[in-house]
Amino acid sequence: MYICCVHAPHDASKTTFSVPKNEGEKGKWEKALGMVLKKSHRVCAKHFETHEIKSTWESGEGLNKYTICLKIPRLVEGAVPKLMLNCENKVSNDQNKNVEV
């Protein structure tokens, strides 16, 4: 079992992704998350937009087209974690407190 390295309180996804080996890509992740990442760190799927996670594989065209669900989801090339859940939750909770019924 892997644990999300982002320490902000959130319900981590079971799907996690390893830190990129490419130093340039790793730097983008570090900048986006605001933390230094180690090789052993993992980032959960909740920090990525849905279009950046590839969970199926497709082949063929027309009537010969078929789709296979991947056992292990993959990130599309160039995917960077953008969603900081603690900020979103904090904003939504503050907005809910100010709503008058």
TrEMBL record:
GO terms for molecular function: DNA binding; zinc ion binding. Signal peptide: none annotated. This is THAP-type domain-containing protein. The lineage of its organism: Eukaryota, Metazoa, Ecdysozoa, Arthropoda, Hexapoda. Transmembrane segments: none annotated. It holds the Pfam family THAP. The keyword DNA-binding applies. Keywords: DNA-binding, Metal-binding, Zinc, Zinc-finger. Residues 1-84 form the THAP-type domain. It comes from the Eukaryota.
